[in-house]
Amino acid sequence: MPSADSTQASVHEADPVCPTRDDAVSRAGSELIGGPIGRRALLGASWWTPVRVVALVAIGMFALGMVQKLPCYDSGWFFGASSQYTHACYSDIPHLYQGRGFADGLVPYFDKLPGDMQYLEYPVLTGLFMEVAAWLTPGSGSLQHQAQWYWMVNAGMLMACAAVIVVCVSRTHARRPWDGLLVALAPAFALTATINWDLFAVALTAAAMLMWSRGRALAFGVLLGLATAAKLYPVFLLGPLFLLCWRAGTWRPFGRALAGAVVAWLAVNVPVMLFAFDGWSKFYTFSQERGVDFGSFWLVLAQKSSDPLTTDSVNTLATALVVLCFLGIAGLTLTAPRRPRFAQLAFLVVAAFIVTNKVYSPQYVLWLVPLAVLARPKWRDFLIWQACEVAYFLGIWLYLAYTTSGDAHKGLPTDGYQYAIGLHIAGTLYLCAVVVRDILMPERDVVRQAGDDDPSGGVLDGAPDKFVLGAAAHPPRHAAHVDGPQVEWGREEASDGPL
Description:
Blueprint: H1 4-14, H2 19-22, H3 24-29, H4 50-68, H5 70-79, H6 83-86, H7 92-99, H8 124-135, H9 143-172, H10 180-184, H11 187-192, H12 198-213, H13 217-230, H14 238-248, H15 251-275, H16 277-289, H17 297-304, H18 311-335, H19 342-356, H20 365-375, H21 379-404, H22 414-440, H23 446-449, H24 484-496
């Protein structure tokens, strides 16, 4: 006779969450394609499984994002400084093909670049990604022709990264595969995907989150270490994971994850560090030396001040501010009435880093999109945030059009751009506030309303707390980890909560 645990677990596995039934915005939007899914629908019974549908939608949206860059592909990147901004189709990729020596066959980190930059200012694994794309770019024809090919090659590689991201997000919460549509249909995701190479690090991070959700701590650590070798932000995920493992008393998986991350990062970085230290260190020195830049509230303060802060002062204040945010998240983690979900804390720490940083490039939104979907898979809140990010995407290009159009003053003046920055920050803080509310009031968490505990938490999913500050925590309510009446009570609570 099967146990209550195994029976209830099989119910969870066989009962996927359908957003057209549970989410008002998704239900209304589904009217365009025939309305909400029926109660007797056999999900996954055909080739058109949720993961495959989500992946195809993501590829289609990525292709639309490429089409949006068409005005620049034809001429804007090469013949007009302002047209690439008025058409909002700017990309770093074709500009850096020549500007960082790829057109001349220079080896990143080892060969000096002409001008003040001297060395490539990207982490090692991203530099390798850029170099592989250069190897695949035909070396014949004009420089413009080569740069166009370089962008196309990178776009193809980044499209593969986008597909990896949506598949990983769809599979991280096993009962919520359709949440991947939030990533696939995110307008800011499509608009910013080919501005820079950030999708590579985002794909590695999404794969790491999937591995952790499956209980594969070492694989998680290796992928996170590789992601950190491509971009700095993934390393911040180790902080909330440490706190969650502390609260649950699960130290061994965290140790394996940390070891895997350190070894993977060192394996990528040490060879370049040993033989080209000046080139390797450029990313870190550049990050410290660059002044206040686009998208940050520090830029607004500098533009409104008659005596702006020095770069050193901003570095110190920004570091202090993000540390305070991290301490606040740590306090929230250890005092929350129920242990927060890993994805919630991952989103909060990356959002804190983005909001307090001295620069916010428009493609940085890519860092947050998968984490936001896992943290708060609610269409209304997600679309509110996306609307703010799209407004900022348009705002920065119109502002650059204004500053490069001379006396014509085409575009958005400084005051308008400052409002766009404020809108981006307000949208991010709004989503953070909703996630914090879910942590403090777990009955409002849409993931837990469906009967799950922490589907992205791996070994943390349903584990009892061992260390909590303040009042005693609620017991875990994941159906696979509790018996009898507690399961039914948890399901009733889910059905009574807001949808």
